[in-house]
Structure to design on (599 residues):
């Protein structure tokens, strides 16, 4: 049963018989054929999960005979995460050269984001859009873990998560001490739709309501306590669910998926991808999908859940012309046609057009249930949505983070034409990120390079880790004082930072290292590089696997074109964290925002 009330137009606009002026070249990296030329361009800012299907449909649309007032039309989708696009719209979509063109159609994962944007802007710039495709929020769990809780005979939900999270015995209370404590993976609701919907559903579950959530509800002590108990079970947050799914899959290949995490809040589509051996939903050339040892099942919370309805929002912004709005409506009608709606099933989504039935791959064999969910939650109004984010900012799990900043000589390389260096941009991004930590988070700062003092020190603790209530100004000042110096002792400093964080481990917080570098290992002694690398990876892996109760995650940032991306990716993977690419230094501010979203 699908509980949706979607109003769709009954007719599809007729397409005028005249071809657009476009070439047949393939645009590298996007799969989009042709060029807009002199056509009316419909730029689409789409959440990443539907870029592939919208690119396929856009290629068909752009080759057809589409016109508005005698002018050809060209649709051009570009991926921008929902929360990132929301923030850009609130700020008037600045810097199109780096943030992508100002969109005509905005297609976030859910209409939730439109309400948040409109509330923060103070007027309607993003009208509620028509659904293109659907996928419900679920709690993904390894099947054997779900069975230990009573699945499939027992309906499960948020109350079961709270009970597990609050039980000091953890999984031992269900006969499985080898699985350790209950651990939840959840994305940051300021950036990710699954994180936003999970947080809304979490507050609904705390109230016992399925509709009519209010700002007053969010302030009730018992609701705050319920939400805090859920958040305290979080392993770490993240900017997208792929971090958890890829780490889970790698752990599964090693045979220890059950001790990495117990459950992750994801969309139904992600369970299908994972169980078919394609956890990130993208098959690279030559990649052969391999089903996991421990498949997942989708738990549809008994208290109710929300759908990601992937709307088409035609923006009411000054940069959107009347012709572009007409062209956007034409494109919207095109993607709603039944033959085009069937394509979303191929990507694991439910059609937005209710005339198209749900079918494979949404099947029990893939760990999902087309008859679920049985209860759907009502999307709160825009004031409540903003209130949910504000409440979460206070009730989220605290973090203990060590920032490790490369100040080697190459950080002094110039970037762009404004006289800025890589270090200048990194300093500004790091300082900006400090505002995203709350006062009870603990943050410290190391810098690293060779020959920091007469003894040849390779790192220096500038600000000892302490609550941000007392460290915020110290961190800002220390970061701003940095200048480029010498070499890049990558291997030894990574290991030292990891071990220092483990020594200072706090089991009540998210413990992590954020490591930024623009270079390769360069400590003036290349003879021992291979052994240093092995020692480092062995230390990271041993300290992060299995039931280890001092699991510190190292989130790495590859900064600039010369950074050792392979090593930085290996470091992140060894600690079940995430690797971030800032090969274009101009993107470092957004990258820092994404990294800090893990806390």
């Amino acid at each position: 049963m699908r509980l949706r009330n979607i109003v769709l137009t009954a007719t599809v606009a007729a397409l005028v018989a005249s071809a657009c002026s476009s070439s047949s070249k393939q645009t590298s990296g996007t799969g989009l054929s042709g060029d807009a030329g002199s056509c009316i361009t419909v730029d689409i800012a789409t959440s990443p999960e539907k870029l592939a299907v919208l690119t396929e449909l856009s290629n068909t649309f752009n080759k057809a005979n589409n016109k508005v007032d005698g002018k050809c039309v060209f649709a051009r989708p570009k991926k921008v995460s929902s929360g990132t696009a929301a923030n850009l719209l609130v700020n008037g979509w600045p810097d199109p050269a780096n943030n992508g063109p100002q969109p005509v159609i905005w297609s976030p994962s859910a209409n939730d984001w439109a309400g948040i944007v409109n509330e923060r802007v103070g007027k309607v710039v993003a009208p509620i859009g028509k659904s293109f495709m659907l996928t419900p929020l679920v709690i993904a769990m390894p099947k054997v873990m779900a069975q230990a809780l009573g699945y499939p005979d027992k309906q499960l939900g948020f109350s079961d998560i709270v009970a597990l999270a609050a039980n000091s015995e953890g999984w031992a209370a269900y006969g499985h001490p080898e699985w350790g404590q209950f651990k939840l993976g959840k994305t940051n609701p300021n950036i990710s739709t699954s994180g936003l919907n999970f947080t809304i559903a979490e507050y609904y579950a705390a109230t016992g309501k399925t509709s009519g959530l209010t700002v007053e509800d969010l302030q009730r002590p018992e609701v705050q306590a319920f939400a805090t108990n859920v958040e305290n079970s979080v392993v770490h947050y993240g900017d997208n669910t792929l971090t958890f799914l890829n780490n889970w899959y790698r752990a599964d290949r090693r045979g220890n998926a059950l001790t990495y995490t117990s459950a992750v809040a994801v969309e139904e589509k992600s369970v299908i991808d994972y169980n078919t051996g394609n956890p990130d939903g993208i098959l690279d050339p030559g990649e052969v999908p391999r089903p996991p040892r421990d498949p997942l099942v989708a738990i549809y919370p008994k208290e109710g859940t929300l759908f990601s309805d992937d709307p088409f929002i035609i923006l009411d912004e000054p940069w959107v012309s009347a012709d572009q709005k007409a062209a956007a409506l034409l494109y919207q009608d095109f993607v709603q046609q039944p033959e085009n709606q069937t394509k979303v099933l191929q990507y694991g989504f439910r059609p937005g057009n209710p005339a198209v039935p749900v079918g494979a791959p949404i099947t029990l064999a893939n760990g999902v249930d087309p008859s679920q969910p049985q209860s759907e939650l009502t999307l709160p109004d825009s004031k409540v949505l903003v209130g949910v984010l504000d409440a979460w900012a206070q009730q989220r799990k605290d973090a203990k983070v060590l920032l490790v900043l490369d100040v080697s000589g190459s950080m002094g390389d110039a970037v762009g034409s404004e006289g800025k260096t890589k270090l200048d941009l990194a300093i500004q991004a790091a300082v900006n990120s400090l505002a995203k930590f709350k006062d009870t988070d603990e943050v410290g700062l190391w810098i690293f390079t060779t020959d920091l003092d007469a003894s040849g020190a390779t790192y220096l603790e500038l600000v000892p880790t302490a609550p941000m209530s007392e460290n915020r100004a110290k961190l800002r000042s220390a970061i701003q004082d940095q200048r480029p110096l010498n070499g890049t002792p990558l291997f030894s400093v990574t290991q030292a930072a990891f071990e220092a964080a483990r020594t200072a481990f706090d089991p009540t917080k998210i413990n992590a290292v954020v490591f930024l570098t623009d270079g390769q290992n360069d400590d003036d002694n290349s003879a021992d590089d291979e052994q240093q690398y092995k020692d480092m990876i062995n230390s990271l892996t041993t300290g992060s696997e299995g039931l280890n109760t001092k699991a510190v995650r190292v989130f790495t940032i590859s900064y600039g074109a010369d950074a050792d991306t392979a090593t930085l990716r290996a470091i992140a993977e060894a600690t079940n964290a995430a690797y971030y690419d800032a090969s274009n230094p101009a993107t470092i501010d957004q990258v820092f925002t994404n990294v800090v979203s893990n806390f």
Notes: Confidence is low (pLDDT under 50) at residues 1-29. The domain at 136-307+378-391 is CATH 3.40.190.10 (D-Maltodextrin-Binding Protein; domain 2). The first strand starts at residue 40 and ends at 46.
